[in-house]
Write a structure and sequence with these properties.
Blueprint lengths: L2 E5 L5 H10 L3 E5 L2 H4 L4 E4 L4 H10 L3 H9 L4 E4 L1 H6 E4 L10 E6 L9 E6 L8 E6 L3 E5 L4 E6 L2 E7 L2 E4 L10 H8 L2
Parallel strand pairs: 1-2, 1-3, 3-4, 4-12, 5-6
Antiparallel strand pairs: 6-9, 7-8, 10-11, 11-12
The structure holds glutamine.
Length: 187
Amino acid sequence: MKSVGVLALQGDVREHLNLLDSLGVATAEVKKPQQLELVDALVIPGGESTTIGKMAVRFGLFEPLRLAIEAGLPVYGTCAGMILLSGTVIDADQPLLGSLDVLVRRNAFGRQNESFEAGVDVEGLSDPFPGVFIRAPWVEKVGAEVEVLGSVDDHPVMVRQGRILATSFHPELTGDGRIHQMLLDLI
Ligand code: GLN
């Protein structure tokens, strides 16, 4: 059976574990470097990217995580997870894994639009995905290897680069497992 880990330092870890459970895979919280070696794929949840990054550094997870992704571990970052995976963030000084060749803007939809829902047309899915956005980033610029799989108002909110998948929105809050299934398909 495939085993999928959720980086469990801060953020909506439980919601991801529940959704993954519903897809019939084994799940595990990942808090230590050794636990990373036991999973076939990893989710980096939403939360506060600065906090998750700093905690990963403090727990000695940051570098092992970066190396595991570089070695091909399939990974899916939602919201703060997308920010952590990125190469550059506008106007922010925080630890970034740099695995995903994108420039990201944090809290990009602005104060008027802190939280909202929007149907997102996702490449490869027949019906729009119910996108839940909470102080979400968007992708401002993508590198040559990055595919844009979904956008809102022409701003990319879902991207893929090899085995790295990222969304600005939160499928774990919807019960819709189609995007988590895409991660499983990358294993
Ligand atoms: N605004 C948060 C950040 O910058 C992300 C919000 C979220 O994950 N829902 O890290």
